[in-house]
Amino acid sequence: MGHLDRRHFLKLSASTLIGVTLGGAALRALAQEQVKPDEPLAMAMKYVEKSVVDGANCGNCMQVQGKDGDAWRGCNIFPGKVVNANGWCAAWVKKA
Questions:
Q1: Most buried one in 3, 62, 65, 81, CB count within 10 A?
Q2: Is the pTM of this model over 0.85?
Q3: CA nearest to 68, candidates 80, 51, 86
């Protein structure tokens, strides 16, 4: 015991790195709080979780960050929080 061959060490290192990377991404996603429509800033920006404006939603707004297809994504208007991709607010600007 105590002897670790190079191949085993590399496998262990690679799986640890992958686990830490994926775990970190999952924790960042979980750490972000969803914007609630009744929050003061959300109310001021008229944020809703389901857009009623035809063709305009958070998913196609230039303020929204993250991958297309994600249900909840970061937004420049609400730092540190995520918005519903189907939502809308008064700061909506069509993504170029």
A1: 81
A2: no
A3: 86
Residue 80 CA to residue 74 CA, distance in Å, equals 7
Whole-number Å distance between alpha carbons of 11 and 41? 48
Beta-strand relationship, 81-84 and 72-74: antiparallel
Residue by residue, DSSP assigns 22-82 as: HHHHHHHHHHSEEPPTTSHHHHHTT-BSS--STT--GGGBTTB-S-TT-SEEEBSSSTTEE
52-75 pLDDT tens trace: 999 999 999 999 999 889 999 999
| Spatial distance between the Cα atoms of 58 and 13, rounded to a whole number of angstroms | 39
- 1: tokens are 């015991």
